[in-house]
Amino acid sequence: MRSFIITAMALLLSATMDGQVKTDAKLVEILNQNGDSLMQSVLKNPAAYNYQIIYTRIDRDRRNKPSFTNFYYNVDSKSYFNPASVVKMPLAFLSLEK
To answer: Which of 3, 40, 57, 88 has its CA 20 to 30 A from that of 28?
Structure first.
């Protein structure tokens, strides 16, 4: 179980991207469909709120085999921060092991 956690964390930390801010038009379209004014005000001020969004779409073929497509919004490899799940997931696994 611990080797799984270490492997998962290594994969998360080793993901590299190019040095430019990455934004996909498809994700912009999805986010703009949401009419919530609070969300729209946050989206219009990326420097003030310091956020990055990575959306992963899971498509399945006829044999139920998944394929993953990532969409990025305001993602910059130079301004990385740890998502909350990096802490929560290993703690949940350790508590299950105990």
So the answer is: 88
